[in-house]
Amino acid sequence: MEDYAILIILFLMAVCLLILTVIGYWGVFCKAGEKGWKVLIPFYNEYLLFKIAWKPSVCLIKWLCLCLYEVVSVTLKAGVLLEMLQLILPSIAFVLTVMLYHRLSKAFRHGFGYTAGILFLPFIFVLLLGVGRSRYTRPDKYIEKI
């Protein structure tokens, strides 16, 4: 019975962190001029986040890398090239995600430390972006400085 209590507590903590993250992204979307409810739509919310902080085409590149990774993962033939692709494709997607977070923090006039915060503790740092005093600046106004 004690094992179930721990699982229930962990589940409730995860739900609370998810709610905090959604509230934060809702605020980020509103500050960027998008409707807040769009954060609730899977895939579209990530597309809009790329649109807010960078370019939507980069989101499509990330999704393409992840889809190709899935195709390569289920391929029956093993080989060095396929194994390298299994390593490279998710790495590209991860790097694009880190770059997205950096551009998002730059769009709200923060630096690399804030990027690390969004990467490791998104439920805190995205919430601070969404409900804090940070102001959104369109990417084309700061992109030359990056």
From TrEMBL:
It comes from the Bacteria. The chain crosses the membrane at residues 7-28, 48-69, 81-100, 112-131. The keyword Transmembrane helix applies. Keywords: Membrane, Transmembrane, Transmembrane helix. It holds the Pfam family DUF5684. It comes from Anaerobutyricum hallii. This is Signal peptidase I.
